[in-house]
Amino acid sequence: METAIGLGKSRRLPSAGATGKTNPMAAPQLRPETIGFELPDEAATASLAQGLAALVRLGDVIALFGELGSGKTTFARAFINALPRPDETSEPDPPTGAPEEVPSPTFTLLQAYERAPATVWHFDLYRLERPDDVYELGFEEALAEGIVLIEWPERLGPLLPAERLELRFGFAESADARRASLIGTGAWSRRLRNLAAP
Description:
nine-stranded mixed beta sheet; alpha/beta; 4 helices; Rossmann fold
């Protein structure tokens, strides 16, 4: 099924099983929902990020997979800037202020942004040496009190939360085009189903 929803072209993909290692003690999850998007340029990637920012909730984990240059940081920048700052919550959506500079936290591993409905904890784990090192960055606090956006989530191994939204970015035919597969588990499964509904 192809549906135009203002985020580029989307198509529902066959539902996949949970990817990566999951916590066997986790509560049973809804069946994962998978949607594919064709993103012809950076503007389409930003539009996808803005659409998902409208669905995000406190406690959400968004895991960004993909090679270097595949669109993870472009997505993260647009996603963070699509969320209002706490002092802008009465303003129209999208926020009217100038976009905040959102550098990739490659060297610091973490950058936090005060946003509504919660602080966004932006992790770039490319340089993480061991999965357990993430706890030194405040990972447990981020999961409990914020919205967690993770580049290079595969570095977490079994510590990657089972309930999450995965975005898997890949290159397409033209230099600026990308493909994105969204895989939602738990509450994200239902949200993605609604996103793709005609």
